[in-house]
Records
---
Amino acid sequence: MKSRLAFFKQHMLPALVCFVLALAFAQTDWLKRFENVTFDSRAQVRARFFPTHPRDDVVLIGIDQASLNNPGLGRWPWKRSVHGDFLQLVGRVKPSVVTWDILFDDPSEEDALFARGIKRGNLEVVLGGARGETDQGFKPGAPELSKIRIAPLPHVEGDRTTMVSSETMSVPLLPLGEVADIAFVDAPPAADGVLREVPMVVRIGDQVYPGLALRSLMHHWHVTPEEVVVKLGDAVVIKNDFVNHRIPIDASGRYLINYRHSVLEEFSSAGYSETYSALHHKFVEKKDVPVPELTGRILLVGQTADALTDFGPTPLAPHTPLVFVHANVLENVLNGDFARRAATWPIWCGGFVITAASLALFAQRKFWQQVAFAIGVPAAFAIVATLAWAKFSLWVPVVWPTLGFAGAQIFMLGRRVLAEQRAKEQIKGMFGTYLAPELVDRMAASGVSPQLGGHEEEITAYFSDIQGYSTFSEKLPPEQLVELLNEYLTACTDIVQEEGGTLDKYIGDAIVAMFGAPIALPDHAYRACVAALRVQQRLDELRVKWQVEGARWPEGVRQMRSRIGLNTGSAIVGNMGSRTRFNYTMTGDNVNLAARMESGAKQWGAYTMTTEATKRACEKHGGDRILFRPLGRIVVKGRTQAVPLFEVVGLKETATSAMRECLELFAQGLEKYYARDWDGALSFFARSRDLEPNIPGRSPGVAGNPSLVYVDLVARMKANPPPANWEGVFVMADK
């Protein structure tokens, strides 16, 4: 029972929490936008690598550039008599319906000629209408609409309040509205501006009307409004003695477009001018010329020339003629080729099971295996989701399942780091049984057994830790890791003790020491700085040695670096612990601040960082032999007062001219930074960056330096300036 409970707490509970949170985040707008981006990418992959041939019973008549350039048609927008003549000719080839994705809602003196062409062509024509503005248009039942062919759909089931709607409509009036049916061209895009769905039906007032594609299909199938049932959240059902179709829609009446084509050449298409000329030559001039095959087909007339305005972003292209939207919808329905959204619960359950199993399976595996799995599963899932869309038009959500899985993997990595930290504590316990050599000597001389207790003393606290230790430690077998640690710790400890420091403890790879106790040293700050510089120099030599030894050590060892933090001030030092086991150690706020110097050095691209107190004490007893670089002022975790920071750069006698120039440029950049002169600061830091002693890519194990840190920080400050009361203080959020 206990083992089952432990399995649940360690593996199943984290996976459960991560996937519940991921599903909750999936309801937010920003995550929905991210999901839409992945959908667009899948649509583009399918269009490119899984092309299909469009139906030939949907024909696009494009108002293309050649049509605009035809002087015989006049200047765009053409006179409506041109459209009337065009339809009169089109009537000779008997298409099932001619649908115009163009608005003719503003009256024209040539509307009668347009209407006459429709009558003479004996055509079924659908003209576009649109939802009206708040104070414009006509309400259903208005006298102006009494003779207009705009019939609502009488059979609508479900909640109409979420539909695309308006109180008024803007439609062609008499005489056009008397000879052609009206349908709505409204296609509002998503929040990101991309058109992925189109209303199959819209609500005007209390009435529901068909969209452009649905009304065209009704003519194509000879279906009356009474034979159409709209079930919001399910489908538009079209059924009579001859046809039986279901068009899926969501609760608002929108249809998810299954985009397959966005290029004119992929459709059966012809230019407006080209079609007009061919029909005129054939039927007016009686010439024996070929004409487009249009009999029984849906003709969709719309703008395709780049110079025109009816364009917008779709998943396949940022600049798409919107007539293609309706063409894709028509082809989807005629083919029964509908897009579907995958159900949530199978994905949730499958992701939860895989994640929980991975937490159990990889708990004891090698780190690289876990990383490979953590990367491989989302990659495989993305491929499966892409294939599901390409082959089955199934929209599988990618973002939130990946987010849930990634959250669990991060938890597992954190748990491994915690386990490593516990291992460090075990090392600390083992080495903590040994007292500092100086204390042993004092105890032997006094003959007094160590007792619990402490006193206040001014010291310089010393903290060091290996950069990236957990990364390479797990790559080494235990005996080799112990050998490496012993070599490193011995070298560092010897230097600390040679400079008069007292070893406090080892915490895994970390070294904690103090200068100034138990033996009083007036120049303890100077000694600590010299010790830190010597340790860094010795580590340079060890890297060369490990590099020579080659493949015996992983790359992380051969590039190993250590970060050191120093601080000078009063602390409590003495024998602390239990009555049966204790150690000579230090504690207090100044000791904590030294630890912050070590952990915070990474943020500033430094490897030895100290406070102003240490710098002043060092200069008091060591003169100007040691070079310091000011890094800024920070408020560390747990404090409210700002602390000036300094990098211990090197010894004055060994400093190169490049190093001195670097420090001068950096100081000038810092001055500009405090003065809010962002451009000036960037200029100086960019110059000092190239003179830094540690440069990523050139110096082993180096990922940054103070100049690079300030280049990034100033750029962010320039983009988002600090408040007026800013004094150049940086607040550390982490320890």
Note: The first strand starts at residue 58 and ends at 63.
---
Amino acid sequence: MGDFAEIRDEWNGKPVTYYVQKGKETEARLSMGKTLQMIEFFSEKYGYPYAFPKYAQVCVDDFIFGGMENTSTTLLTDRCLIDERAAIDNRSTESLVAHELAHQWFGDLVVIKHWSHAWIKEGMASYSEVMWMDHEYGAEEAAYYRLGEARSYLDEDASRYRRPIVSHVYREAIELYDRHLYEKGACVYHMIRAELGDDLFWQAIATFVNDNAHRTVETVDLLRAIKKASGRNLLFLFDQFVFRGGHPDYTVAYSWDGDSNLVKLTVTQTQAKDNSDRANLFDLKIPIGFGYIGEPESKPLNVRVREREQSFYFPLEKKPDFVRFDIGNHTLKTVVLEYPIPELKAQLQHDSDPLAQIYAAEALAKKGGLESVKILSEALTKDSFWGVRVEIVRNLASIKLDQAFDGILTGLKDTDARVRRAAIESLAAIKKTESYKAIKPLAEKGDDSYYTEAAALRVLGSLAGSNLLNEKEEKTLKLLRSVLKERQGWNEVVRAGAIAALSQMKTSEAALDLILEYTELGVPQPLRLASIRALGAISTGQTNVNLERILNRLKELSRESFFLTQVSVVNALGQMETPKAIAILNSLANHTPDGRVRRIAEEAVQKVQKNAGADKAVKQLREELDQIKQENQELKSRLEALEAKTK
């Protein structure tokens, strides 16, 4: 309950309303203004008109979720309300609105029978974000958004744990609400769509919704609906991606036999054996194609990949310009392309699939060398899709040659704020004076995008805090102080960037003093939470006296009951390298009523135990290694330049 402003719309005679803090009406329209189009779109796609007598969205403060899909009345965090400047490069609010609306069908109209099957609703709500991106912005945007969802799951799988999507092993149901449930679930829905084709997929979804409206369901009900609508039994796909953990890791090697006009493609599954020492192989049909510059795309050839290593041979009339593995990149996987540079160059420049272009860029960067730098730098200036340009910039930064620096600088001038941000973040890895000079004007003058401006501040602090550029520290501190005093704005994104910058000045007591100041009550919540998290990052370079100050402050903060404060405290403690952090984490885990906080606190204890061995001698070695890497990069860059001149 509260004193809200009410904004009214209508869809097919049903009231659609938005409730926000008074004075935020303009932001409400910017943030939720596409709701009517979304209701129409999802009603058509799911084959079932919106079922309830009205739909409302209420933006509230201190909300611990992004959104909650109560039947016909969704709650949203007021942090999702965007202004004109945030709208430049913020699609997360639009995606959140789509996600929670999708739950009115998947979650409210059709209800899961048991928590273990929550992927049915969360996977579809997450996949509906992809669907909306495709509808509103096009296929390239949707494909790149889907890659982001896959990467989110892959990161959790690699860094935290692996589990089946449908799992009955948990202490509290909230533990299941992870990236396996949301993002991997979305990728599985997409694989079902790729397997069935669009027409049969949407028929299956409509069958599932209509047959189960106002009823409870399990995963088997989705399988039954697919079988009923399409005649296809997709249990093989569910067995591999839903009822067991993991995904295939492919390495693909290509060679051409000019005498026989024969392509040889060798596909290796490199994923490790599972816990029971079984082979852990996937058995899937993968579409292969061969591209020729200036010619129509060839018809896909399906190959069955089911062994640890398989070689496939394709007779062709002439050598292809590039090879397309998993056309459309619909399969949830990792892939390493071991193709020659000319084929990778052709794929980067001419493949119609942005994900194939991105995999080619990654393979070029892995090869390294001046030729790869030249190809990537050229593509950065010519490719029409911002997502591909973002990935090119990031891959340029992974090539440890000075010549890559010029390519990254091109990204700083890109018309798209997301590419500029990627270029700024990439320069964080190139710790030299030129990087600092390139970013400083952006940090001082700002950018049209909040996020890009915050990134410039964050990276400037990272560079100034490195042992190679510590003479820049005092000037940077002065700039950050002025930012914290003067640049209040939407969701405190810019000032939080300044706090993140301070956290990278790990040996500076002045930086620590500033961060501590902004952890006090009364500081705007987004900025305060960012400051709490920053205490963990800065702790690794502080004196013992200052380390005690940080621990005492985090101990005080751990007693606060607000969920987001507790999460930020756990995040900070998990970054620390002292065993003293463990006692605070254990106390928090034992006393919090929230299962999510308990879970991440227990994981943070393991991180601290691992980090605690990083003593001063190890830190000294790290600093010396940074210096050696820098010198090695300079020598390698000179050698590459000399070799290029002699060719």
Note: The first strand starts at residue 4 and ends at 11.
